[in-house]
Each structure stands twice: as C-alpha cells, then as structure tokens.
Amino acid sequence: MSTVMERPDPTATTARRRLPGWARGALWAVVAIGVLSTASYLTDMPILTSSDTSQTALRLGLPILLAALGGLWAERAGVMNIGLEGMMILGTWGSAWGAYYGGVWVGLAAGILFGLLGGLLHAVAVVTFNVNHIVSGVAINLLGLGVAKYLATLVFEPISGNPRESPSVEKFDTYSATFLSDWLGALEDEQRVVLSDVAGLLRGLVTHVSPLAMIALLLVPASYFILWRTRFGLRLRSCGESPVAAESLGVNVYLHKYIAVAASGGFAGMGGASLVLLQGGADYLENQVNGRGYIGLAAMIFGNYRPSGLLGGAALFGYADGLQLSGGGAAVLALCYGAVLLLAIIVVLQLIRRHWWAAAGGVAGAVVLYWIYWTSDELPSDLIPYTPHFVTIIVLAVAAQRLRVPKAIGKQYRRGEDS
C-alpha cells in the first residue's frame, strides 16, 4: 500500500507566522516615530515631534476617528454610508444648540442625537425602501447642510446676529497628568535625538486632554469587543457578509442594519460635536466640517475595516492637519522628507517579498517627493490647508491594494429573497 506525502500548505504556514494585528500596529507606530525623529533631526524641524503638534493632532484627529467608527459600524453591516459628512454637520449644529441652552454634556448628547436621526433617515432609505446607498448618502449630505443652515438662521441669528455661526458656547474642560507632563517636557527641552522626540509626542497626548477625547479613544476597543467578541456583533457582521445566510439562521437582518446605521450616525454626530465643544476649536460655523466625514471614510479604508487600523488612519490624518496648523509650509515640506524615508523602508520590504511593481511605484513616489523637497524652500500657503486631503488621496491609492471589504456591502436586500 502506497502513501502519498502531502505538501504543506504555504498559505497556512504564512498565516501561522503572521503577527497579530495589535503587534503589527505597534511595530508600524515604532517605525513612524523613528522616521519622524530622523526627519526632524536631518531637516532641523523639531516641530515634527513637538508636544504642540501632537496635542493639536489629537484634537483634530478626534472627529475623523469618530466618523471612521461610524463608517465601520454601518459598513460592517453591509450599508455603505457616505452620508457621514451630513450627519457630522447635523451634530455640529445640535451640539452648539444643546451646549448654549444646557451646557457641554447636553450639547454632546444633542450632537449625538442629531447625528443619530440622520443615520436613521439613511437606514429608512436604504434598508426599508432599498434606495441606492450612494444616492441616499449624497442626499443626506445635502440635507444635513441645508437643515443646519436653516436651523442656524432660525435659532442663532436672533442671538448672534449672524446666521452662519452660533453664539459662544461652553467647552469641555481639559486635564493633564501633571507629573508625567512635566517630566516629558523636561526631556523634550533637552533635544536629544529620538528620546526628546518620543517625549514630545507622548507629552501632547497627556496634556490638556478632554473627557470627550478619553471617551472617543475608549470607543475603539469597545467597538472591537462588541463587533468581534459578542453574539450581537457576529450577527451584525454576518449581515454585511451574507444577509440571506444570516436570515436563514434566524438573524433579524433589518433590525441589525437599523441599529448599525443609527449607531453610525450617532458616532458621526459625536464627531461633529467634538469640533464645537473641544478647547481650541471654534463654536458652530457653517461648513466647519470641511470634508472630515469623507476623510473619516478614508481612515476606515486605511484601517481595512478594523478598529485598530482606523485608529492609525485617524492619527495619520490628524497629524497631517495638526502639523500644517502648527508649523506651516516648512513643516509640511519636512514631512515630505519623512515620507521619502518611509517609502524607502516600504520599497525594501516589497523587494524582499519580490513585489516588483509595488517597489517600482514606491521608488517613483519617493523620487517625486524628494524632488519637491529639494526644489522648494516652503510649500505655497494656498496648498497647505489641503494637506490632509492630499494625504487622503495617497492613502486611498495605497490601501486599495489590500482591502478585505464586507461581501454584501452596498447590496440591496429584500427579506425572503435569494442572493
């Protein structure tokens, strides 16, 4: 009797050797800090790793993080939600209205409520009436902008005299880990290579932190636990993979989609509220969301529809936005130099994996960025405010190569029908 030797499955071996998601994220965080530290030293731009930049990045990254969480909940349930922008706009108006009449916590609750109402409207359109998800999302964005403008004219103009902004509203208090902040500040001032850079970045994360920032950051592991470690989360994600199969196993697909999209709107409304209620931000202003709902979607895609990944995406976009505010064109130009260093690392990794075309693309990108850095003393001031948007385009182009999208996302579903 002959026996046939089975070849080991190389895919299975690779899967066993892959680092867990949290370890890969931590590794890339170390790489990013190393790149920023090196770029800061070589370009003589300590603003790249200063505590002011880190603190500003945290404040500006929060609305993006919350919008990304909103997108995660909806799209894991199979509902494409490009209406996050409109839900955030509703959240900005609701939070300003609530904070003016009832204080900061009432403002936060009102912002969440208004965003949730926008999410429910999207759910009615796409879940109950099977409207195309993109069409409904665009309509929500236009409706959110129009409703906020009408309500601001109706409610705020008699008080502030300006239909485009609210009167001054209460902001969240901030708290600092004083001992840790002072120690890190002393290390930052010494300007030691790497050590002072790490101290500066960490100091910005423990200084003048608001309760809303703490809540938003806790929502990331909470979302992971609910969606990946509970029966409810398994059922919700099954609706985004195969709603027909989920229905055959007794899952109420409509209910789970409604809950997911309503939660999505609540997160987006909370993100809008953060623009109004955080120290350093403006009161309600018309068009103050400025595309952050779309950037939140980009952060979610960058994170491959995972909570830990979208946290990294929000940090990236928040940092780019914070840097252009803290350091201007010279700092953004230094960031281009850092991007060249990062691309060099990525090219080496791609060559090791024998991904020749990806390596060639990385080399081309590095050459272009280095040419911009070498030929420019400072980037044009008109382009600087759009730094996060340029980062969004680049990230989407790179992230699209490795996406694992829910299979039933954006698809119309009727109870009892076969897929």
UniProtKB/TrEMBL annotation:
Matching entries from Pfam families are given as:
BPD_transp_2 (PF02653)
Q: Where does this protein chiefly localize?
A: membrane
- InterPro entries the UniProt entry points to: ABC_transp_permease
The record's section on CDD domains has: TM_PBP1_transp_TpRbsC_like
- What GO MF annotations does this protein's record show? transmembrane transporter activity
How does the entry describe its membrane topology?
Multi-pass membrane protein
Gene Ontology terms: cellular component? plasma membrane
Which keywords belong to this entry? Cell membrane, Membrane, Sugar transport, Transmembrane, Transmembrane helix, Transport
Record localization: Cell membrane
Q: Taxonomically, which superkingdom?
A: Bacteria
| Family annotation (PANTHER family) | GUANOSINE ABC TRANSPORTER PERMEASE PROTEIN NUPQ, SUGAR ABC TRANSPORTER INTEGRAL MEMBRANE PROTEIN-RELATED
Task: Supply the name of the protein.
Answer: Simple sugar transport system permease protein
Tell me which species this is from: Prauserella sediminis
Taxonomy of the source species: Bacteria, Bacillati, Actinomycetota, Actinomycetes, Pseudonocardiales
